[in-house]
Design brief:
The protein is α+β, with helices and mostly antiparallel strands. 29% of the residues lie in helices and 24% in strands. Bound molecules: 2,5-anhydro-1,6-di-O-phosphono-D-mannitol and magnesium ion (MG).
Length: 334
């Protein structure tokens, strides 16, 4: 009987094609995968182990943390700090970077993550996920700095997400396409079930939080209005709409059947350029989407080209099916 390709096997086979690869990256990715399995288990047990509800604390963004935000952040740190592949980590849940403690060896990579994206959904039992991005640590100095993390998305070595939905999946790119793995809980392994995921160029489905409509700028107003007008409008066809409020779930749907996801620039809070964070939400998702043949933009520029200015910087995000995202971008230029 053929058991299918495990994620470890897949990564090792990919590494064989890279000249001079030391195995460091493969080993790092293994630890990330383990962290996602542990998080999957904790999220799945939920109320049985008392992890639901608020932690009664705030993160750097001023958002109330869920107990699971705090627990999953800790899981990611403990799983990835010890092995000697990383110089430092950064997370949505930590104001400052986390240099690898002196008791462990330091390595050449940086890990950035959102340990539990869409966590407002956990109490209502809707899909949440983990997003991660791996960068090379550029600094010559032995002490990693925030500056080392401020690299444009095109520099990412790897990006991925785990989705804790009706099944747990891990979706990954190292810059050679996008592959999806499903967790087989009986054997504790992610198995390759979705090779070469691609996003159809056309779609009739969009996702946006319509309660913010009055704050949107003209190009997004126009795009959504035209979709809503359906068959009798300028697009001449009906559109469907979704909003899960969990970016991982939205991107996963788009990778599966196409679509457009928008968290655009709005005037709700003039101090914020958008809601989603560049380093651990927009960049890894944009890398995955582009690798699957989609497009990702702020409306004005390609997200992966942005030079980050801060660890927790926010950006507008419009991503998904090529032809629709290009249309929204064209409306920004009109
Ligand atoms: P989080 O990282 O605090 O969970 O916030 C990010 C999430 C995204 O997953 C999702 O697309 C968005 O916030 C939903 O925002 P809203 O509640 O404004 O619709
Ligand atoms: Mg998030």
């Amino acid at each position: 009987m053929h058991n299918g390709t495990t994620i470890t096997q897949f990564i090792i086979e990919e590494q064989r094609h890279i000249q001079g690869a030391s195995g460091d990256f493969t080993s790092l990715l293994n630890d990330v995968v383990t962290a996602c399995k542990v998080i999957s288990n904790v999220v799945n047990k939920g109320a049985l182990i008392g992890v639901m509800g608020s932690a009664e604390s705030e993160n750097i963004q001023g958002e109330t943390q869920k107990k699971l935000d705090v627990i999953t952040n800790e899981i990611f740190i403990r799983s990835n700090e010890w092995a000697g592949h990383l110089a430092a980590m950064a997370s949505e849940e930590m104001e400052e970077i986390y240099p690898i403690p002196a008791r462990y060896p330091r390595g050449k990579y940086l890990l950035v993550f959102d340990p539990l994206d869409g966590s407002s959904n956990v109490d209502v039992n809707i899909s949440v996920g983990t997003i991660f991005s791996i960068l090379r640590c550029p600094g010559e100095s032995p002490e990693p700095s925030t500056q080392d993390f401020l690299q444009p998305g095109v520099e990412q070595v790897c990006a991925g997400y785990a989705i804790y939905g009706s099944s747990t999946m891990l979706v990954l790119t190292t810059g050679h396409g996008v592959n999806g793995f499903t967790l087989d809980r009986d054997i504790g392994e992610f198995i390759l079930t979705h090779p070469n995921m691609t996003i159809p160029a056309d779609t009739r489905e969009f996702a946006i939080n319509a309660s913010n409509q009055r704050f949107w700028e003209a190009p997004v107003q126009r795009y959504v209005e035209e979709c809503l007008a359906g068959k009798t409008g300028p697009r001449g066809r009906d559109f469907n709409m979704r909003w899960v409020a969990s970016m991982v779930a939205e991107v996963h749907r788009i990778l599966t059947r196409g679509g457009v996801f928008m968290y655009p620039k709005d005037t709700k809070d003039p101090a914020r350029a958008g809601k989603l964070r560049l380093l651990y939400e927009a960049n890894p998702m944009s890398f995955i989407v582009e690798q699957a043949g989609g497009v990702s933009s702020t409306g004005l520029e390609r997200i992966l080209d942005i030079r980050p200015e801060g660890l927790h910087q926010r950006v507008p995000v419009i991503l998904g099916s090529k032809n629709e995202v290009e249309r929204v971008v064209a409306y920004h230029k009109a």
